[in-house]
Structures are given as structure tokens and as C-alpha cells.
């Protein structure tokens, strides 16, 4: 709250670049990047290369994504909901008809489809995940 406080702390050597976080949409949040170090380095290089070549979309949209990815994600979500509904119905029926072998097999079939749908959705989410912020180095400027 004191005027000049940051200037005094940061302006000593004006050309020193300091670490900061950048968000293209001013939305900062807590997140953990679960990618391996090599995956993070490849992603950082891709952003850096895009900036060097003058790309307007160096950050890949961050949350906007393209429509094809969105449609695919919705399809996977629909499959998951359908499998969950069918599994719940088969399970409820099988509980009332415990001596019906076909009902028990139907529960097993939909349980497997539900697990497969969950895995497909998780795989797609992790494949298309992009960090919401980026670490940069820049000089302090008091404008």
C-alpha cells in the first residue's frame, strides 16, 4: 500500500527478468500439471516456436478449443451417460431377478461398457489438456 514499494524492491536492475505467470484470459487458478517433464518441455517449445513465428494463437485457445474436439468430447460424454443409465437399469432388474442368468450377464456387459466409456473419456481429457497459465520471465515495468 506504500507508493514506490514495488519500485524499490524490483527496479534495482531494470533489465533483470523475473518469473511471473501469464494467463491469456486473466483467469488464474490452482492447478497441477500431471504431464511428464518431457511432455511439459515439448509443450513449452511448441508455444515458444509459435510465438517466434508470429502465430496469433500461441496458446492454442486455452479453453476455447476447436469444434471437432468439442464434438468428440460431447460424444464421449453421451456414451458415458448412456452406459451409466443402462448399467443402473440392468443392475436394478438383476437385483429383483437374482436367479436370471441373462440379467446377471447384462449387468456384467454394461459394467464393462461403463468402465470402457470412463477410460475413453479420461484418455481424451488428458490428451487435450492444456495448462491454464504459462510461466514467463519479464522485466518489471511501472507504467
Key words describing this protein structure:
two-stranded antiparallel ribbon; 2 domains; 4 helices; 143 residues
Short account of what is shown:
By secondary structure, the chain is mainly alpha-helical.
3D shape:
elongated
Oligomer: single chain
Rg calc: 25 Å
The main sheet orders its strands as 1-2
Structural class, please?
Answer: mainly alpha
How many domain regions?
A: 2
The averaged pLDDT comes out at 77
**Largest beta sheet, briefly?**
2 strands, antiparallel
What does this structure look like?
- By secondary structure, the protein is mainly alpha-helical.
- It folds into two domains: 5-62 and 133-138, no CATH class; 67-128.
- Helices cover 56% and strands 7% of the residues.
- Strands 1-2 form a two-stranded antiparallel ribbon.
- Helix 3 runs antiparallel to helix 4 (101-128).
- It starts with a helix and ends in a 5-residue tail after the last strand.
- Residues 37-65, 88-143 are annotated as: Disordered.
- Residues 37-59, 88-99, 108-128 have a biased composition (Basic and acidic residues).
Amino acid at each position: 500500500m506504500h507508493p514506490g514499494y514495488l519500485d524499490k524492491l524490483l527496479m534495482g536492475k531494470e533489465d533483470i527478468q523475473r518469473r511471473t505467470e501469464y494467463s491469456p484470459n486473466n483467469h488464474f487458478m490452482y492447478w497441477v500439471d500431471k504431464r511428464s517433464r518431457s511432455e511439459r518441455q515439448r509443450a513449452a517449445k511448441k508455444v515458444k516456436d509459435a510465438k517466434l513465428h508470429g502465430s496469433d494463437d500461441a496458446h492454442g485457445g486455452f479453453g476455447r478449443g476447436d469444434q471437432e474436439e468439442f464434438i468428440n468430447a460431447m460424444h464421449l460424454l453421451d456414451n458415458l451417460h448412456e452406459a451409466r443409465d443402462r448399467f443402473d437399469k440392468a443392475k436394478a432388474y438383476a437385483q429383483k431377478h437374482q436367479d436370471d442368468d441373462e440379467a446377471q450377464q447384462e449387468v456384467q456387459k454394461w459394467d464393462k461398457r461403463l468402465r470402457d466409456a470412463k477410460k475413453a473419456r479420461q484418455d481424451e481429457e488428458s490428451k487435450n489438456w492444456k495448462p491454464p497459465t504459462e510461466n514467463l520471465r519479464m522485466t518489471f515495468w511501472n507504467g
